[in-house]
Write the structure tokens for this entry.
Amino acid sequence: MNYVRLAARDLLRNPLRLSLTILAGAVGVTAFIFLRTVIDIFYFGAQAAQVDRLIVRNKVSITEPLPLSYYARIAALPGVTAVTHQEWFGGTLGETQKDFFANFAIDPVTFLDVFPEFTTSPAELADFRNDPCGALIGEKLARRFGWKPGDRVTLKGQIYPGDWTFNVRGIYTGTRPGVDTTALVFGYRCLNESEQLPEGLKDMVGIYAVRVDDPARSGQVAAAIDGMFDNSPYPTKAESEKAFQLGFVAMSSAILTAVKVVSAVILLIILLVIGNTLAMGVRERTRDIATLRAMGFRPRTVVMLVLAESSVIGLMAAALGVLAAPTLVNGFARAIASQFGQIPDNVMRGRTLGVSALAAVLVSLLAGAGPAFRAVRMSVAEGLRKVA
Amino acid sequence: MSLEAVPAPPPMVRLEGVSKTYRRGTVEVPVLEAVDLAIDPGAFVAFMGPSGSGKSTLLNLISGLDQPTTGIVEVAGRNLAELNDRELSDWRAAHVGFVFQLYNLIPVLTAAENVELPLLLTPLSRAERRKHVAAALDVVGLSHRVGHRPPQMSGGEQQRVAIARAIVTDPDLIIADEPTGDLDRKAAEAVLDLFGVLHHDLHKTLVMVTHDPHAAERAERVHHLEKGVLQ
């Protein structure tokens, strides 16, 4: 007999209630991990951003274009090692969102200079560059639709009306984990030289991506770019790639705040569920606790016994939740990968699991504190009079 | 040859001008009034009286579970008012054993584990604790019930386990609150016989509250309480 055994026996007084409490806690932990991972997904683009890249967009709005003529002027700036441009095409394969994938018009010649994390074979790259309407597709996208070089893909334009057919010339992969391989990119010429191009969009691009020689001078380069076009009809906003990605996150700030609030609410629910179980357990044992104290057990010992029970419940709930979370979270990530693009295969981070487990244990301890201190606040004589 | 008188040993329990008043809302309810009492070491004293006469309150004061409103409570040479909560816990663990009317055993622990509980507060090793537990259970004649849990035992057996728990730390004072109140006559006799052993053979100081005149007869001295006043 020792204190651990005593706490274990107390904990196992009502196995059904204990099991249900642990299960409820585990469901809460899983939900918490899920929501925290959703938040991580929003920030994934920003985390994957490179420090030596700037993004230049129209100062008015991301949806406003910039002239193609800016390319040469940006490329000539000191500190700039490479420049490329891209245009969000927004074409859809089918009628439903399920068929959606990201697609851009890019400059085939300069794109890989600025985004070296995308790679393809030299032969496929050459084919891609030589075909004005050639396309490179990410390996995940190729797997998803079973496409291969030589296939033709027709997308229905939303921003650029009409059907647009591209020739798959190669499949690109990522040089590191986290590179988006779910997109289709095609040559800008196909768009710019098409008769289908709406009026006013000729020789216009969406954004410029700029690579700098010294990340420490990114701010100066950005200021120089903006200064160069300040008084033009198309003023620019140059910022780090991370800031640009965070700008997208900011657009979803209301959703993110809601997700954060719900995840906090889940912790509160775990607290209430475990707190309720412990309160019931302690109330049922009021006389036993009073007996222990009459025998000479110090209040601190009684508090520690109750907190030991609550921490065990928290640990079990955390362990079960952490075990269950990967299936749910990775399944969700796969389901939304087409909309979000850059989601790594194993989207759930060890840190998220660790923080969630720690939060569950801390919340359980907090839940046990109330009943524990209530148990020792009651006078021993009064506790001894209680009949279970 | 010297004929100097041998000084009498100090009393095990000494109450001087003890009163206790409870406050219920704005009303003050006196429960004990000006109680003076001395119980010698090794004595077996019973308190009788109707419900609400203050018997249990008196036991709580003697065992350090409650504090008097006025007066002094001295047990085993210590003025209990001088001890803080923690010191009182330690003092009870070292000096007092409890026997309750409803036995107050922990239902999820075996008889041996229940008896071992007070020993967790001592520096004894596990092996030493086991030896003490076996000895205590032997005294109460329950060596064969070591692994049984309270729900698997009769009321009389449970009370004997409770007595084993009360004596396992070898305390100076055993406090028994209606120890036979929930037992049939035969089981009550067995418990009272055990009290006789504790008193006569082990020289323990026993303070018992009872409604049962038959139980009170076993004590050396019987005090009556009437509306908080010691008769």
Observations:
- The first helix of chain B runs from residue 55 to 62.
